[in-house]
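Quick one: structure tokens for this chain, please?
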Amino acid sequence: MKKKFTRIATLTLLLILISFAFNLITPAKSATSDFKTQWQLSVTGLVENPLNLSRTEITAMPKSTVNAALICVDFPGTILMQGNWTGVKLATLLEEAKPLPNAIKVAFFAADGYSTDLTMETSMDDSVILAYEKDGEPLNDSRLVVPGKWGYKWISQLIRIELVEFNFLGRWESQGYSDEADVGSGGGSTLKDLAPSLPFSSSTPSATSPSPYPSQPPITSPAPLNEQASTPPPLEDMALPTSTIYTIVACVVAVVLVAMLTFVRKKTKQQ
């Protein structure tokens, strides 16, 4: 009876360990798979040729790689992320959409409602890209890479680009942060003394400034996704993934089974 119990307990332990390993590997594969199949980007507004592109279509476009550092305005002395970003030039996307002559700004919108903006001139710069890889590894979401600009311009989870004919201001820009968002001539390579104290503003938005167009997604999150260090994430975003909970439970059960096996073996030896 004891031998039978030992065999069953050992088999159960092996199954739990296999499940544990599977749960560690599956989330990463699932995230990459979802990104590859579900990411869609639209380019609309003042364009002759509106676009609705999948990740597959975007990655088929000519690639461009830039080395740049992501720096949050709240922590100007700290590089949050740096490396070789690979993607498609924003200018390539805009040229494909064929901007109309009266477009003066480009508005960007993320899946979580975050928004930012760039001038047409900055948007056509060859160093500005929509990245889907970093250091040769695929990103779990798209990210706009804008070298030399503060992190609030580096919008991630980008789902919509719209060209407009008024002075559109994004989430932080509309609250008084610099619309130019220049880190400095070093573009993040040398960080000391590049940034003024927080917050800073080149101009304070007036009450009569044009409002975003009616189709803008509602802004409900307390802080932009791209600068999470500024404000703690909402409690719901801090919840453990289901796979993590399963893994924790599996570990607890495995520990209990190991303890039971050890106890049974000791009893067997004593007898």
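The CA atoms of residues 129 and 145 lie 5 Å apart.
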